[in-house]
Design the sequence.
């Protein structure tokens, strides 16, 4: 089998696996979020938290709960890193410097998992396990909660109530993420990922030198890093590190874990609004965009355009021999199409156009299929914008799922859409305007701009992958990118919850002959078109100066 | 609780929720995974250690350098890929080069110049020149041609700077070849090509990489650094290239060495995942065993 054919079969096998799992998992998540019974352990947790699980919240209260939980998480994770030398299992590492601790705390709480630090030389086992990995779970559960609240907005009528954030948070963590993570972690250990509490220890190598081997609870963190579309690695080298991704089949498992929940949530959505076809339409938009992107990225890497890849004879710089070029490209597409940002190969050394696809995936707003939860609510906002555009064409008040998309709804959807491009482009412009920040670029010319543009795109979209040549652990970049991550996460969440609140209050409009059916291929094509055109109009000028200038001679 | 203002109540609930979830997800969950993993999959959970003469010499998953104290390859061992992790295969500094596909311009060392710490200026090699130099060195080690496209015969990137950037060339410099080296081409569009003078700013010129006619014999993975810098594998092609040298150095029949390569090759899982790869550490240990 040639590498290209094997790469195609690899992608096909992922599609088959996701097609098999999305229904049972989507239905299971539907039952988790709509069930009225609490498990005994959940009752105990609600008592410890001090909340009444059966009272529902208005959108303002739901949003305040999300923000309060996230703010407390950032503060505690910051303190945890600053005090790690006072606690046990610190491996002798000192306190994390303040700007890196701020950046990392925001990064993990916002589901970005941008790494301004190098795991093996900065973070002790306790901070990794009880600080960072906890946020891997709960930031994912927060994303799912917000998505479910928006879906309730569509599904409910004439009510102020959107559910209870604390119940959604606990159920998402305990009933969805935890069981899959537990099984997945053991599967990864079987592949060779480590799971121990050993300190770094030196061994004498065969050639007579010394090598320090590391330990740590890696597998348990690796699986939730992928499953929760987080992406913050135990090690600097992330999922290219053999202890994080040991074999060519653990690589498949990790890609599958990244895509598992985001591709199942449209089914949950279809069930909750009582029309599965609506879920399939959303799934189809995600699927079409994802397949186009993964095919293009893999093909561009296999074609190895550019001077150095041509000199080498393959785009192998920054890629591992056991994965090869094709599977590395597939991982890169999966990680940037979702909000994961884990890497099994280094995007900075990708072909110019391959790297551009990775950047473009994030610029799409990570909706195909997007991060856990954030992908679904992002795609639903785009669907709202699409029915609005379609409504303008025929001169009718647009509706989606029986809800009128009026001035308030479209304002919130537009604000949602505009937040990240504003952060990306303003951030990049500020960095490029300052000689000091430009000095952080490792590569010169258009590739240097790509590095900075990629960094702000990744942070603002809560992805976390990097053109890692850019030196970002400076106070300026740590602060600026931290702000982008926080604003890029929480402003959209507030807009989405506001949208959910105003949708839930409405009485449903009965469908008429003039209603645009939102489950047909026509609508799928329209949403995909609107997504691509909006992104192209926003980012093409910046892309033209970076990767396009580099890749097209 | 009920008499507190709402915003404060939310934050206290948030703090309590975070603490409870930290105990569950941050302590109990990893401990449970560790317990099961250590009970059932002890060797793997502890990093797949490999031993030689009863002593742990590394991990089957983490690559090593097989070079002497001077950095030169030890000829009786198969060589790993180039590494960007610290000084090479340092697990405390995993990572990649992060150099881009058009990183082709060297900064030439200025003879006699020193940096801020008083150390002699060593310049900076572009990714292209690193690839060319590695190809040349690997070719020399294995007794085959180290030539590659876009590389000069002396093992740097074949890149011209053409002035002016737009229009008919009036001056052409082979920027990666420091004077007094002879440029890899004598003429470019009728203009004599100069060698590169260290310290001179050529940024105004147009960059023209020259492909040339060379075909690469040394495989791609032999001239590129991996993502982790800890890649334990090389391609089957690179292992086969090294086989005759190793057989000669050890006085073994080539067939025996090839057989050991096969034994230490992991194929594609299920026939389609990843690429076939040869584990360098276990292969070298098998050779040492005899």
Sequence:
């Amino acid at each position: 089998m040639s590498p290209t054919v094997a790469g195609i079969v690899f992608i096909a096998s992922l599609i088959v696996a996701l097609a098999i799992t999305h229904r049972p998992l989507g239905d299971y998540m539907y039952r988790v979020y709509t069930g009225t019974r609490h498990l005994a352990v959940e009752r105990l947790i609600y008592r410890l938290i001090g909340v009444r699980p059966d009272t529902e919240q208005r959108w303002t209260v739901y949003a305040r709960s999300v923000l309060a939980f996230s703010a407390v998480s950032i503060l505690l994770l910051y303190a945890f890193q600053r005090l790690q030398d006072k606690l046990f299992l610190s491996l002798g590492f000192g306190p994390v410097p303040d700007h890196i601790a701020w950046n990392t705390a925001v990064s993990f709480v916002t589901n970005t998992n941008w790494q301004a630090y190098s795991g093996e030389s900065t973070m002790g086992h306790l901070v990794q396990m009880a600080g960072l990995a906890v946020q891997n779970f709960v930031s994912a559960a927060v994303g799912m909660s917000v998505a479910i609240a928006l879906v309730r907005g569509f599904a409910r009528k004439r009510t102020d109530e959107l559910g209870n954030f604390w119940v959604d948070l606990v159920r998402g963590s305990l009933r969805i993420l935890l069981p899959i993570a537990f099984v997945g972690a053991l599967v990864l250990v079987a592949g060779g990922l480590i799971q121990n509490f050993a300190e770094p220890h030196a061994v004498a190598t065969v050639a007579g030198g010394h090598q320090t081997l590391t330990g740590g609870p890696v597998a348990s963190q690796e699986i939730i890093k992928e499953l929760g579309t987080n992406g913050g690695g135990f090690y600097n080298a992330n999922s290219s590190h053999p202890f994080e991704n040991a074999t060519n089949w653990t690589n498949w498992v990790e890609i599958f874990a990244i895509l598992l929940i985001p591709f199942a949530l449209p089914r949950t959505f279809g069930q909750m609004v009582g029309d599965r076809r609506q879920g399939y339409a959303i799934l189809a938009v995600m699927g079409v965009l994802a397949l186009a992107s993964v095919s293009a990225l893999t093909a561009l890497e296999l074609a190895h355009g550019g001077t150095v890849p041509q000199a080498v004879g393959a785009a192998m710089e920054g890629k591992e021999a056991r994965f090869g070029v094709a599977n590395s490209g597939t991982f890169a597409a999966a990680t940037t199409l979702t909000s994961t940002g884990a890497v099994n190969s280094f995007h900075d050394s990708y072909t110019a156009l391959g790297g551009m696809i990775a950047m473009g995936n994030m610029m799409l707003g990570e909706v195909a299929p997007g991060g856990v939860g954030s992908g679904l609510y992002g795609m639903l906002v785009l669907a709202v914008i699409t029915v609005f555009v379609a409504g303008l064409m025929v001169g009718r008040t647009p509706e989606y799922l029986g809800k009128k998309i009026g001035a308030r709804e479209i304002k919130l959807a537009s604000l949602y859409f505009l937040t990240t491009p504003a952060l990306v482009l303003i951030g990049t412009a500020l960095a490029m305007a300052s000689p000091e920040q430009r000095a952080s670029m490792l590569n010169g010319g258009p590739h240097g701009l790509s590095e900075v543009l990629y960094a702000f795109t990744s942070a603002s979209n809560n992805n976390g992958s990097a053109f890692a040549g850019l030196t970002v652990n400076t106070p300026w970049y740590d602060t600026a990118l931290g702000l982008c991550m926080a604003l890029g996460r929480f402003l959209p969440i507030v807009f989405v919850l506001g949208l959910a609140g105003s949708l839930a209050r409405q009485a449903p409009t009965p469908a008429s002959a003039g209603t645009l059916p939102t489950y047909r291929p026509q609508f799928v094509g329209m949403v995909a078109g609107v997504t691509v055109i909006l992104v192209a109009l926003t980012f093409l000028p910046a892309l033209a100066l970076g990767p396009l200038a580099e890749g097209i001679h | 609780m009920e008499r507190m203002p709402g915003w404060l109540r939310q934050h206290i609930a948030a703090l309590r929720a975070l603490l409870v979830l930290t105990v569950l997800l941050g302590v109990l969950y990893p401990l449970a995974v560790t317990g099961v993993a250590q009970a059932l999959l002890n060797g793997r959970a502890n990093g797949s250690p490999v031993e030689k003469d009863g002593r742990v010499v590394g991990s089957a998953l983490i690559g090593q350098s097989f070079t002497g104290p001077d950095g030169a390859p030890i000829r009786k061992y198969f060589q790993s890929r180039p590494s960007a992790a610290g000084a090479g295969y340092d697990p405390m500094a995993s990572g990649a080069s992060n150099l881009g596909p058009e990183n082709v311009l060297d900064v030439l060392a200025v003879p006699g110049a020193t940096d801020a710490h008083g150390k002699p200026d060593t310049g900076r090699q572009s990714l292209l020149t690193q690839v060319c130099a590695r190809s040349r060195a690997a070719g020399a080690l294995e007794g085959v041609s180290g030539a590659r496209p876009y590389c000069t015969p002396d093992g740097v990137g074949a890149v011209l700077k053409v002035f002016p950037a737009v229009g008919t060339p009036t001056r052409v410099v082979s920027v990666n070849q420091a004077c007094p080296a002879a440029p890899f081409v004598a003429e470019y569009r009728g203009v004599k090509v100069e060698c590169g003078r260290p310290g001179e700013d050529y940024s105004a010129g147009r960059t023209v990489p020259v492909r040339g006619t060379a075909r690469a014999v040394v495989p791609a993975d032999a001239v590129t650094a991996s993502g982790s810098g800890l890649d334990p594998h090389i391609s089957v092609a690179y292992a086969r290239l090294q086989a005759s040298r190793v057989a000669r150095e050890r006085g073994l029949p080539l067939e025996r060495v090839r057989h050991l390569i096969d034994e230490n090759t992991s194929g594609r899982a299920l026939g389609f995942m990843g690429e076939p790869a040869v584990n360098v550490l276990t292969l070298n240990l098998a050779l040492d065993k005899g």
Q: What stands out?
A: The CA atoms of residues 8 and 14 of chain B lie 10 Å apart. The longest helix of chain B spans residues 6-40. The beta strands of chain B are 49-52, 55-59, 159-163, 171-178, 187-188, 191-196, 206-209, 233-234, 265-266, 277-279.
